[in-house]
Design a protein that fits this description.
The complex is a heterodimer. Chain A is α/β, with parallel strands linked by helices. Chain A has four helices and six strands. A six-stranded mixed β-sheet of chain A has the order 2-1-3-4-6-5, with helices on both faces. In chain A, helix 3 links the parallel strand 3 and strand 4. The longest helix of chain A is centred in the first third of the chain and has 14 residues. Chain B is α/β, with parallel strands linked by helices. Among the domains of chain B are: 106 residues, Response regulator (Rossmann fold, 3-Layer(aba) Sandwich), CATH 3.40.50.2300; 167 residues, Histidine kinase-like ATPase, C-terminal domain (Heat Shock Protein 90, 2-Layer Sandwich), CATH 3.30.565. Chain B has eleven helices and 14 strands. In chain B, the strands form four sheets. In chain B, strands 2-1-3-4-5 form a five-stranded parallel β-sheet, with helices on both faces. The radius of gyration of chain B is 54 Å and the shape is rod-shaped. Classes of the chains: A alpha/beta, B alpha/beta. The interface between A and B is medium-sized, with 22 and 26 residues.
Chain lengths: 125, 428
């Protein structure tokens, strides 16, 4: 039996970005990707989808990624779901296969290649 | 009561003296007439007692008459003298008058009334003369006093001028310092603006770039891989995205999110490490590399990666400027800053203090140098002469920023023989 697909949730207001990431990851194989463009609906989406891993944009128009994290913190910690922040305002590009860390929080800097995303997911799951 | 007039008569001829006394007493009472027969006694009398007037015989036996006259004038300058002379000696009398005698009378022709009048006038004239003299000397004193006051005032003025000049010089220095501080302020303001701008721009530009990159990847996987034109087109797109991203990254270096990681580093190791990175470029362009490292250099506390970045940027600028077959000289030395001309100062705001030990890196090239007109602008964010080669104008401003984060200093100067010398100074 084929290995179960890794369920990854992207919370990011850039619809085009998350749509393309979903297409690229799913085509690469082994990933079931759900996207949510409203940070305020993050917890709902997590409860519904039960992801194995979450990517969370730091800057969104309706709510900041860190506020979203505060909301979902209890749930993701209880279920040991890794959360990686996506940010467009950090210079350091994570090296392929590694997520960088600021203040104990992992992040990936945009723009980002599918290869890097997959390496990051595989390092956690 | 009217004061009696005191007269001293110096006359060797007793008879003559008696005659005169008679004449005077007949005409006018109220006169005390003392008689001395010779000049020496007359002078003694004068020294002892005040008199109002002296009647002096000019033809005294043991004295040249004028000589006696002079002695009396010296002894009692304020006492009027009337000289008496014989008929034959009027010329002597006239010269006595010229020397200050009030009047002269010719013996044997004396009229009592005339003599008394002469005495009165003589006393009166002398008094006026004395008043005049006193007034003049008062005046002189006042003039002198005033002159001294003026000299004092003048000296004070001069002092004030000196102080003002000193104050002006101090002001000038302060002004220069202010100007410097202001230009530094303008610079750091600019840097801050760039930093702020950078994070705003980064968010607005990096998100679209992220979308583009994902799109390109999708197309790369799904469009015909056999079509070379499509493959190349997508490669160009991917490279363009990455180039745009690296420019944004350069801007973000200003906001310096990440912390400095300081550690003790050997100056030579730092340079040699940086040189490893560009060995390829140096070989490719046949650069003649000369090194002059002083022995026993002290370690410097730096963020290794950032300082290597600085070295690389300066070396790459030099290679870019020279093209092939250029020559780069790298010198490292250490010394103690011992004069203000070194750019060291005593104020808190000075980068270096007198007495600081510093390590100095010099990078010398023999390229065309930097035009003087832009030498001041090369550290300005977004200033570049390499727009056509994709320069962002951020390289040197980032370097300056890094040097300031290390409390160090970078200067660029044109060499007289051509080329540029970049000097980096770190506190040891």
């Amino acid at each position: 039996m084929a290995e179960a697909k890794k369920k990854v949730l992207f919370i990011d207001d850039e619809e085009a970005f998350v749509t393309m990431v979903k297409m690229n990851l799913e085509e690469a194989g082994g990933f079931d990707v759900r996207t949510e463009t409203r940070g305020t609906r993050a917890l709902e989406a997590i409860r519904e989808f039960k992801p194995d891993m979450i990517f969370l944009d730091v800057i969104m128009p309706d709510i900041s990624g860190t506020d979203v994290f505060d909301e979902i913190r209890d749930y993701v910690q209880a279920h040991k779901i890794p959360v990686v922040f996506l940010t467009a305002i950090v210079a350091d590009q994570a090296e392929a296969g590694q997520c960088s860390s600021i203040g104990g929080r992992e992040f990936l800097a945009k723009p980002i290649t599918t290869e890097t995303l997959i390496a990051c997911i595989n390092s956690h799951l | 009561m009217i004061e009696r007039t005191k007269i001293l008569m110096i006359e060797d001829n007793k008879l003559m003296a008696k005659n005169l006394r008679d004449v005077l007493e007949t005409v006018q009472g109220g006169m005390d007439i003392a008689w001395e027969p010779d000049p020496a006694q007359g002078l003694r009398y004068l020294a002892a007692k005040p008199v109002d007037i002296v009647l002096l015989d000019l033809i005294l036996p043991d004295s040249q008459g004028l000589e006696t006259f002079t002695k009396i004038s010296l002894l009692s300058p304020s006492v009027p003298i009337i000289v008496m002379t014989g008929v034959d000696d009027e010329t002597v009398a006239v010269s006595a008058v010229r020397s200050g005698a009030q009047d002269y009378i010719v013996k044997g022709q004396v009229d009592g009334q005339v003599l008394v009048k002469s005495i009165r006038y003589a006393i009166e004239r002398k008094r006026i003369e004395e008043d005049l003299r006193k007034a003049r000397s008062d005046l002189e004193y006042k003039v002198q006093e005033r002159t001294e006051e003026l000299i004092d005032i003048n000296e004070n003025l001069q002092k004030e001028i000196d102080e003002r000049r000193k104050a002006e010089e101090a002001l000038k220095v302060a002004y220069e310092q202010l100007k410097l501080a202001q230009s530094q302020l303008v610079y750091s303001e600019k840097m801050e603006t760039v930093g702020r701008l950078a994070s705003g721009v980064a968010h607005e530009v990096k998100n679209p770039l992220a979308i583009l990159l994902q799109c390109v990847e999708y197309l790369q996987r799904n469009l015909s891989k056999d079509n070379e034109k499509i493959t190349r087109t997508l490669e160009f797109m991917s490279e363009a995205v990455m180039r745009a991203d690296s420019i944004i990254k350069g801007m973000l270096d200003f906001s310096s999110v990440s912390q400095m990681e300081l550690s003790d580093q050997g100056p030579v190791e730092l340079i040699e490490n940086a040189l490893l990175f560009i060995k390829h470029e140096i070989d490719l362009h046949h650069i003649n590399l000369e090194k002059a490292y002083a022995p026993d250099l002290p370690a410097i506390k730096v963020d290794k990666n950032r300082i290597e970045h600085v070295f690389l940027n300066i070396l790459m600028n030099a290679i870019d400027a020279m093209g092939d077959n250029g020559k780069i000289t790298i010198r490292i030395k250490s010394r103690v800053l011992d004069n203000v001309g070194d750019g060291a100062g005593r104020r808190g705001a000075d980068t270096f203090k007198l007495g600081d030990r510093v390590v100095i890196f010099e990078f010398e090239d023999n390229g065309p140098g930097i035009p003087e007109s832009i030498l001041e602008k090369v550290f300005d964010p977004f200033f570049t002469t390499k727009h056509d080669k994709g320069g962002t104008g951020l390289g040197l401003s980032i370097i300056k920023n890094i040097m300031e984060m290390h409390h160090g200093r970078i200067t660029l100067k044109n060499r007289e023989q051509g080329g540029v010398i970049a000097t980096l100074t770190f506190r040891a």
